């Protein structure tokens, strides 16, 4: 068995164990392979090992890979999106996880309307409070979501995404993940028309087990599958 294959098998076991600790059905957690800087060959190995969702950070890099490998899997954009790349992004990606501001939502909506599609999005929230992370502030997210739901018919909100700060101990990320879940529950309680809160995209190589314990439905894993990035 290849190394990528074996890594994916181990991660699935760890996800299942974390889900069991929290009394969750492991089928409620999907595994995304994050492939920034990863070679085409290793991405194909991951797909061969049963990965059904690929996450990319950069539109140009993803465009080349998607054109080469096709849409037998879902491609999600997880990296920061510049407004001027929204047009390309709506045509390429099955979901955009990094919607963090009104101006970007408006542009994606406009481009999706022009393309005759509805774009699935997550609203990215910055719960760690780090300046370097690009999500909306937690107290701004509900307003952003209400505005999108009311005025942007070519966006379909599917849930929330966050990136925890890096900590030496993954337990320290727990309040961040619990905070995203609490925010999801607050938004759900508002019963906003046209808003689904089915997805909580949270958890990476160093902290995904804690994220699963706190309710992640989509974990985004790069290094634990492919090894350290070198590019
Ligand atoms: C790179 C990246 C990941 C994967 O990180 P690893 O630590 O390699 O698992 C997940 N989410 C986002 C937004 C990323 O940029």
Task: Provide a descriptive summary of the structure in words.
The protein has 231 residues and is an alpha/beta fold. It has a single domain, classed as Alanine racemase (TIM Barrel), CATH 3.20.20.10. The protein contains nine helices and eight strands. It has helices at residues 3-21, 40-48, 59-69, 86-92, 102-115, 141-151, 174-189, 208-213, 223-226, and strands spanning 30-34, 53-56, 74-77, 95-99, 119-124, 155-161, 195-201, 218-221. The chain has an eight-stranded parallel β-sheet. Helix 4 (86-92) crosses helix 5 (102-115). The longest helix is centred in the first third of the chain and has 19 residues, at 3-21. The chain is globular, with a radius of gyration of 17 Å. The mean pLDDT is 96. Bound molecules: pyridoxal-5'-phosphate (PLP). Pyridoxal-5'-phosphate binds at residues 34, 36, 57, 78-79, 163, 204-206, 220-224.
């Amino acid at each position: 068995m290849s190394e990528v294959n074996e890594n994916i098998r181990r991660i699935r076991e760890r996800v299942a164990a974390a889900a069991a600790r929290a009394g969750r059905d492991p089928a409620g957690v999907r595994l995304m392979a994050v492939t920034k800087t990863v070679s085409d060959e290793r991405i194909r190995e991951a797909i061969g090992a049963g990965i059904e969702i690929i996450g990319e950070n950069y539109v140009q890099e993803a465009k080349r890979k998607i054109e080469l490998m096709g849409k037998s899997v879902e491609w999600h954009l997880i990296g920061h999106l510049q407004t001027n790349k929204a047009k390309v992004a709506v045509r390429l990606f099955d979901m955009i996880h990094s919607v963090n501001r009104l101006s970007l939502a408006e542009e994606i909506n406009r481009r999706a309307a022009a393309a005759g599609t509805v774009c699935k999005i997550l609203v990215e929230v910055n719960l760690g409070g780090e300046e370097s992370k690009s999500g909306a502030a937690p107290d701004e997210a509900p307003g952003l979501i209400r505005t999108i739901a009311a005025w942007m018919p070519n966006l379909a909100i599917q849930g929330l995404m966050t990136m925890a700060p890096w900590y030496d101990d993954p337990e320290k990320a727990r309040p961040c993940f619990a905070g995203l879940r609490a925010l999801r529950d607050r938004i759900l309680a508002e019963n906003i028309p046209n808003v689904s809160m089915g997805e909580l995209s949270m958890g990476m190589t160093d902290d995904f087990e804690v994220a699963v314990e706190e309710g992640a439905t989509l974990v985004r894993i790069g290094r634990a599958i492919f090894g350290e990035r070198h590019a």
